[in-house]
Each structure stands twice: as structure tokens, then as C-alpha cells.
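Structure, all two chains, one model.
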Amino acid sequence: MRQAVMYAPGDVRVEQRDRPAVARPTDAVIRVAAACVCGSDLWPYRGIDQIAEPRLMGHEYVGVVEEVGAEVRDIKPGQFVVGSFFTSDNTCEICQAGYQSRCPDLRPVVDESGGAQAEFLRVPWADGTLVATPGQPDADLIPSLLAASDVLGTGWFGAVAAEAGPGKTVAVVGDGAVGLLGVLAAKRLGAQRIIAMSRHADRQKLALEFGATDIVTERGDEGISKIKDLTDGYGAHSTIEAVGTQESMLQAIRSTRPGGHVGYVGVAHGVTLPGMELFLSGVHLHGGPAPVRRFLPELIDLILKREIDPGRVFDLTLPLDEAAEGYRAMDERRSIKTLLRP
Amino acid sequence: MRQAVMYAPGDVRVEQRDRPAVARPTDAVIRVAAACVCGSDLWPYRGIDQIAEPRLMGHEYVGVVEEVGAEVRDIKPGQFVVGSFFTSDNTCEICQAGYQSRCPDLRPVVDESGGAQAEFLRVPWADGTLVATPGQPDADLIPSLLAASDVLGTGWFGAVAAEAGPGKTVAVVGDGAVGLLGVLAAKRLGAQRIIAMSRHADRQKLALEFGATDIVTERGDEGISKIKDLTDGYGAHSTIEAVGTQESMLQAIRSTRPGGHVGYVGVAHGVTLPGMELFLSGVHLHGGPAPVRRFLPELIDLILKREIDPGRVFDLTLPLDEAAEGYRAMDERRSIKTLLRP
């Protein structure tokens, strides 16, 4: 089968690999219907994360179950499934509390057997990781279901962690797919005012369509001042951080009022938080790898009812064979998010 | 009047100063009935915080109102009052949300006009900062009411920030007065299991009397392992951090399960939190200077009903004139907390 592999920064190739098979009795193997390039895939692509050896790429996926292990009870061959990027048993105390992305039995989807930017994918803990749709979904819903696999689930978690809700003013730091879907989540959760921080016209437009009420183009101290100006000097009640740099984390914390909530979902790179500033900020800080599995049933339901349309973040669709161009387009900001069809 | 003043590390003197008067129309002046030495006073005493010029000491107090400004409506001369260490208007959005310690109109009680380790104290924003007891309290309740002014309010906030409650296992890092009263708060809030981390027999004893169910004497990685052993490998649901060092913050974060809550109330000294570790921890982090004013009405009520006895943290009582000995006793860990009688 074909699989996207990153050899070095800027060097992504699609090559032939063995098709994965069930290895543990709790595995499933799926035929990937759609996968995509993640903002976090750009960290190694840009040389910020090191690549020691060729890396199998892709951790966002939807597809049809081909085969399941002997201990898989709920997931069945032929079902259309959406999965999350970390696997989880979904039975332990951590999973039951809604933190499936920190399951002690966690195994990454991208492991020895493959990544999701491929024709087939082996998924550990199939019952605890995958959610089946009722019947085969309409083809036009596939991008939205794929978004649920990571970027929607992550933006949603950011909004939940930031306690976005009725009466709240929510600021969103980051205008990538996760930030934009954080806007959508905040809107859906009932936020009164949603301030998207973005300097790109195409992303501003989508943010407004997803429910943003204000756009702030400034960054850093100027951006923080703007947020304060829009909130009687207090700062936002809730801030979603969807970048993961030192600058974006401090921007998020400083844009939030004392007692407010920062939901941070950008993968931290080179971030160190100054203890005294955090202490005096009085904010709540919560985030990390999103427990997408917690939200999947609800998100799939909203998508199938066509109440949300998160698939709009995909502004470029390419065949899997052109994965390299998908990475380039996102790296050069020509594409918000690129969908790959095996 | 007499006032404790710190001139340099290890150098505390009680000297004559002018008695403070109402300076702003929202001020009150109180005759201090009892004050005390705070764990945070030991930072400059030990030379960890710098002292540029002689510092008026004391920010914990109870007393009787002598005089009020023209705009003070609720607080009246003759009332017995308990106040918090930061002042607050208690009318703005931040105060109304329960974060009076971050009021934009905040003024420290220790300012140009004096500190609480004195005979008299000027309190800005009297209506928003002070809470009067119904009538004069019994003399034996004064230590507990004084504790409410800071250490109980701070330990309580730590427990609330850590979301201690029914069914929860709560770990407490730090066995000073705040940590011990964090134990009391967790018990009162209904926690199922309370693990006090302490290496001192007298403090362990008080922790057990306040409601601790387990004592862990180990620190650092060994202490974290013990907490994990006691919680099926998952970590505590809630951890109260009541020290403020890099070691204690990391011990608190690492002792907490993913999705759990760390309430940190130790004043941060030299703390920098590693972003990636925090991201992967999946914990909620909340803390800062405790909004004592939020909790005062409830805490005063519990004390007057004799349902809690937080004054037991005071194991040494001295006349104000012997303040220097009070500092020495706490510095040398001969006293958990020292009460000063003007």
C-alpha cells in the first residue's frame, strides 16, 4: 500500500509499504477514506522537531473497518469509523473521567505499523478509540467527519477547557484550523462574544462565518491591549490558545482576566511559564492533547445533522500521492488545511 | 504607636511610628486585636526577597474599628472585623466573580500608612475588604478569626482551586499553616482521602487532627511515587500546593492525575514551568493570591459556630514587642505560626 513518509525537513515522500494487519486482539485495521496534514506535522517539516529516522506520517483519519482482532466487541468490519489521534482503552478511571488522550494504556496511532496518511491503518484499542457512524455517511460529510478526528475535537477541547459558554467573551489565539474550529466550538457552546486574533484575510473570513464577532489583527502587547479595550479593561473570560509558542501562551494568559480560563491546545514548543506571573494572573490553565474520544459521539451527531460544518477548514484536497504538495501548501500558508484522498 | 519593621534579613524591630488616620474617604482605621507572622514574611527574613528600605510588616489582622471615612457605608466604629491581606472594592466584575485579590482597585494593606503587626492599621476600601462579626467574639475565638484573615482563607482557596470534594483523593504539598489548613478545608469540602506530605511530627499530628487520612514523608520523585502507590497508579484527583518553590510545584503537578486539579497558593519563588511537561500532564492549574474576601463570611460563620478550629495552627503567642522572637521561632521551625498581641 501507499504511505506518506517524512525523511527530513521539507522531504515528504509517498512510497510502498506493507499493508498493516491486526497485531493485538484489540486492534482494528481500517481502509482510510480520508486523511490530512496537521499543523503539528509542520513542526518536523520545518525542522523545529528533529527527525531521527524516516517517520510514517498522519494521525487524523476516517475510514471503513476491514478487519478486527478477536477481543474487539463493538467495532465491526464494514462500519464507517472516526478515530482519535491517541488511542485509549476507554475503560480506566482516566478515560472514564474524559481524559482518553492520557489513558495509561495510550498508544499513538502512528506507531510501528503505520501512519494515517496511507491506504490502510492499524488502530490499537479499536473499541476504545473508534466511533462508528450509523450507516455510511454522505460523501460530502467526509471532510467534516475527518475534522472531528483531530482539529475539531482539539478546538472543541480548547473551548471546553477555556470554559467558553453563555455570557462569556472568548478570545482565540491562533488562526490555524484548530483556532478556527475553537471559534466554531465557542459559538456552539453559547459564547456571547468571540474575538479571533488573525492577520490573514481568508482566515478572518472563515472565523466570522464560524461565529467570531470581532477580529483583532495585532499580536503581542498590542493584541493584548486590544482585547482589554474590548472587555472594559478586564480581559477575556476565556481564551483558547491554539499555537503552542512562548509568545502565544503569554499572549493568551495576558489576554485573560483574573479568574478567567485559558484552554491551551497548541503543542508546546520551547514554552516555559514564569511562575510569579502565572501566580499573579489568577487565571485557570488547562489543556494538553485533546481527549477527542470524549467529544466524538456528540461531534459526529452534530455533523450528521448538518448543524456544524467544520470540514470547511479544508481548502485544498489532493490525492495521497501528492502529499508532498499538501505539506508545501500548508507550510507556505497557501492552504489552511489539506485533505488527502488515498 | 508600636509597629514591627524589618530592616534587613533577620533584623525585625518594634518601634514607635505615627498612628495611621483615615486618608481616603473609603478607609477605615482599626485597633489591631491580634496579628501574626506569615510564612511569606520569611522570604525577606531569609534574604530570598530583597529589602530596599525598612519594611512595615504584617498583613493578617483582626481588630475593632476606630474610625471610618465619609464614604464607608457598611463598616462602623466599634465593630469587630476580619479583613483580607489585599484590599478590594468588592463591586467590580473581578470582585463579583470572586477574585477580590485581583481587584483592579487593589491596594495592599501594607502600604505607606503601616502594616498589621502594629497597634493600629489603616485599611483601604473598608466596605469591600472587611467583614464584621455579629457582636464581639469570645476571646478564645480570636486566633481562629485571625487565621481566616490569610492562612485559612488561603488554604481554603487552595482546596477550592484544586476542586477538593466528595469522592476525591487530595494531596497536600507543604506542611506550613497554609498546607495544614488546606487539609482542614479539603476535609470540610468533603474529600474522601487526604494525603498530607510532611516530615515533621508536630505538623503530621495536626494534619491528622484536621482530617488527613494518610501521611507521606517522602519528597520529590519518591513522594510522587508514594502518591501514585496510594491511588492505583493514577495520582491524586486534587493537589494543594502550599510552598511556592520549583520543587514543590513540580511535585504537585506530577502527583496529580491527568484531568485532575492543582490548586497552588504558595507564593512562587524562582518557579518556571516547563511547557511541554505541563501540556502532557493534562492537569488543571489554578491559584495565586487567595481571594480571602470571597470566603470570609462563610469562614467566620463556621468559626463562630465552632465547627472549625483553624486557630490551632498558632502554637506560639507573643506580645507585639517580641515580634523578633516570633520571626526567629518560625524561621527555625520551632513554631508553625506565631500570633502577636499588640
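Chain B touches chain A through 40 residues (CB under 8 Å).
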